Amino acid sequence: MISVKNLHKSFHTLKGRADILKGIDVDISDGEKVVIIGPSGSGKSTFLRCLNLLEKPTEGQIIFDGEDITSSNVNIDKVRSKMGMVFQHFNLFPNMTVRENITLAPVLLKLKSQDEANEEAMALLDRVGLKEKADAYPSSLSGGQAQRIAIVRSLAMHPSMMLFDEPTSALDPEMVGEVLSVMRELADEGMTMAVVTHEMRFARDVASRVLFLDQGRIVEENTPDELFDNPQNERTKLFLSKVL
Amino acid sequence: MSLSEHLFQDFIAEKRYMYLVDGLKNTVIITAGALILGIILGVIAAIIRVQHQNKKNSSEKTGPVLFILNVIVNFYLTVIRGTPTIVQLMILTFAIWKSGQPIQVAIVAFGINSGAYVAEIIRSGIQSVDIGQTEAGRSLGLSERMTLQKIVLPQAFKNVAPAIFNEFISLVKETSVAGYVGIQDLTKGGDIIRSQTYDAFPPLLAVALIYLVIVIGLTQVLNILERRMARSDIR
């Protein structure tokens, strides 16, 4: 499904060049749920954001559905419409109702008529238990509700893969569960997922594979049981000893 | 002469009130035209500047077209904001576009002038919208243009509506210098009455009142607009 080869990303900062990703190789196949963990500043989010080119890789290739999306003649909008993304801060459009948030992209991109999109929005909202919020504005939602709606907004595009960038990090603790349970459901339905998170329970329960990133490299990758119970790398051990 | 005789002489006799009516008409036409032109120019200039800045920040290479457009925009903003409106109007009327119909020339001159100020307001508006909004739009597969049009600009306009209306209000009053290039606007109309009746206060006071009413009207429009845009703020 998606194949990352020798991915590098550097930023130019005031202090000079910062190399955030230093050669990432990873394949994610259909239906896999890959959870990316690692200390702050390890490049987890940058890696995820490179997958849909919100960050432009400095070097390397990303093959998505057989197409190298880093090449300049690729229609990146089309690629992104197949890759849903959920952000830490939800990024709902504050000037639109929940329904408008969900239907904007499918209608603008002419995938659906407004009526069809509305209908699907209601069905999706029903699934996450937020049907009554269709006409509400994002400012009236709790963090947990907003994030569930952000997930629904992505799903309305029928992506073949979903990227989650710390989807629960900005939530009050009591709202983490409701978002994770939507993600679990999605995983059970066979969605291909790449998730950056600090929720180790979720990683253990849902992930088919866990990547441990440190200083821009994948230091260790394994099934969750192996990685959490029997970490091989010293840095993995140190990190897990602090977070578990 | 009693006050009523003064007023009669100033406004009723020889239909002198028509100077104010016709003048108001011209003021409104010039203002409205310049407003529209100013918004169009301002939005375009703002988008060019923001795009150029974004590309520069993301250390992507800026294309030559964007680079040149940005140079033009910067030149435009510097020259227009650095010289008096009245000078710009006179240069356009007497030097550049001599064959132009005076009202049209004035619309263009005030529009170009207003656009420079609107550009900076809109630019700050665009930059006040969280980058996450753009990222959310793009990640849904919307093009750069759609994201800007449907997601960023509406929020930008909302954030800068008061500043934009401030500019509109300035524009209304700034058109009062149109008399310099022979246009009979509202101010000139009042001045003509003064020169005919040798009575300064009533006609000029009337002119001032009319401007005041226009500005109060514009402020009301802003209030209504802000209330409508605040719908999404209610918690």
TrEMBL record, chain A:
Matches recorded under InterPro entries: AAA+_ATPase, ABC_ATPase_HisP-typ, ABC_transporter-like_ATP-bd, ABC_transporter-like_CS, MetN_ABC_transporter-like, P-loop_NTPase
Molecular function per GO: ABC-type amino acid transporter activity; ATP binding; ATP hydrolysis activity
Keyword Cytoplasm: no
Pfam (any one): ABC_tran
Membrane topology: Peripheral membrane protein
Limits of the ABC transporter domain: 2-240
Entry keywords, A to Z: Amino-acid transport, ATP-binding, Cell membrane, Membrane, Nucleotide-binding, Transport
Protein location: Cell membrane
Source domain of life: Bacteria
GO cellular component assignments: plasma membrane
Matching PANTHER family: AMINO ACID IMPORT ATP-BINDING PROTEIN, GLUTAMATE_ASPARTATE IMPORT ATP-BINDING PROTEIN GLTL
Sequence similarity: Belongs to the ABC transporter superfamily.
Protein name per the record: Amino acid ABC transporter ATP-binding protein
Organism: Candidatus Weimeria bifida
From TrEMBL, chain B:
Topological category with respect to the lipid bilayer: Multi-pass membrane protein
MF annotations from Gene Ontology: transmembrane transporter activity
Biological-process GO terms, alphabetical: amino acid transport
Regions crossing the membrane: 28-50, 62-80, 204-225
CDD domains linked to this entry: TM_PBP2 (cd06261)
Subcellular localization, as worded in the UniProt entry: Cell membrane
Annotated PROSITE patterns: ABC_TM1
Occurrences of domain ABC transmembrane type-1 (ranges): 24-222
UniProt GO cellular component terms: ATP-binding cassette (ABC) transporter complex
Stated family: Belongs to the binding-protein-dependent transport system permease family. HisMQ subfamily.
Name assigned to this protein: Amino acid ABC transporter permease
Lineage: Bacteria, Bacillati, Bacillota, Clostridia, Lachnospirales
